[in-house]
């Protein structure tokens, strides 16, 4: 097993991997969008995000650290067939990208999968992009269900304790209402008692006849 060996080999030697990572990271900073395979994109993404985090700090020591990791390739633009220097990769990293993501705590890049396949080995092709200035932040993650269940259990226990005296009071009121008959019930029972003896002799006379 490959213990304590992080990262992807990508079928290259260590020197070739370092050079490829630098070249792709510099191209991403320069153009802000590159097309590559999914394995390379996943390998380069954390490297570029660490460089942007250094750029957000913006001190001289962080600039030197970024140059040692990335190099400082010149950005060249061609106008009328002539090459004109437009600054350097590290200069753009610290002057443009660092201030752009000051309020973002992380997640400066994204991978967009494409339906295209690379000719030759049929590798999956993706776009690796830097986020724009107007990109919204991610939504806040919801708390886990375990915490919710614990809170619900606490609230239900408190509600039960508060509901117990109310339920006891309701039961006592119902018992008192059953034990003490109302005035209407009393009057109805008295009327029945007075009418009952008057009807009994009439029934006896009819039976004699």
What is this entry, summarized?
This protein has helices spanning 14-31, 38-57, 60-70, 89-100, 145-179, 183-208, and strands at residues 33-37, 74-79, 82-88, 109-117, 124-130. The chain contains six helices and five strands, in the order H-E-H-H-E-E-H-E-E-H-H. It has 209 residues and is of the alpha+beta class.
Characterise the protein shown here:
The structure is a single chain. The protein has 209 residues and is an alpha+beta fold. The protein has two domains: 14-130, Ribosomal protein L17 (50s Ribosomal Protein L17, Chain: A, Alpha-Beta Complex), CATH 3.90.1030.10; 154-208, no CATH class. 58% of the residues lie in helices and 16% in strands. It has helices at 14-31, 38-57, 60-70, 89-100, 145-179, 183-208, and strands at residues 33-37, 74-79, 82-88, 109-117, 124-130. The strands form two sheets. A three-stranded antiparallel beta sheet has the order 1-5-4. A two-stranded antiparallel ribbon has the order 2-3. The radius of gyration is 42 Å and the shape is elongated. The model has no long low-confidence stretch (mean pLDDT 81).
């Amino acid at each position: 097993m490959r213990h304590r060996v992080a990262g992807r080999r990508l079928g290259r030697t260590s020197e070739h991997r370092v050079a490829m990572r630098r070249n792709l990271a510099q191209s991403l900073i320069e153009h802000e969008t590159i097309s590559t395979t999914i394995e390379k994109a996943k390998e380069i993404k954390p490297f570029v995000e660490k460089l942007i985090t250094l750029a957000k700090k913006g001190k001289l020591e962080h600039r030197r650290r970024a140059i040692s990791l990335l190099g400082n390739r010149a950005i060249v633009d061609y106008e009328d067939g002539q090459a004109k220097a437009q600054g350097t990769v590290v200069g753009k990293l610290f002057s443009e990208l660092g201030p752009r993501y000051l309020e973002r705590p992380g997640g400066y890049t994204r991978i967009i999968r494409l339906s295209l396949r690379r000719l030759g080995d049929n590798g999956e092709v993706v776009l690796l992009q830097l986020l724009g200035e107007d990109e919204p932040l991610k939504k806040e993650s919801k708390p886990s269900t375990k915490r919710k269940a614990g809170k619900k259990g606490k609230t239900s226990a408190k509600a039960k304790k508060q509901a117990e005296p109310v339920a006891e009071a309701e039961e006592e009121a119902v018992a008192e209402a059953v034990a003490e008959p109302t005035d209407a019930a009393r009057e109805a029972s008295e009327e029945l008692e007075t009418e009952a003896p008057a009807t009994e002799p009439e029934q006896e006379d009819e039976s004699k006849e």
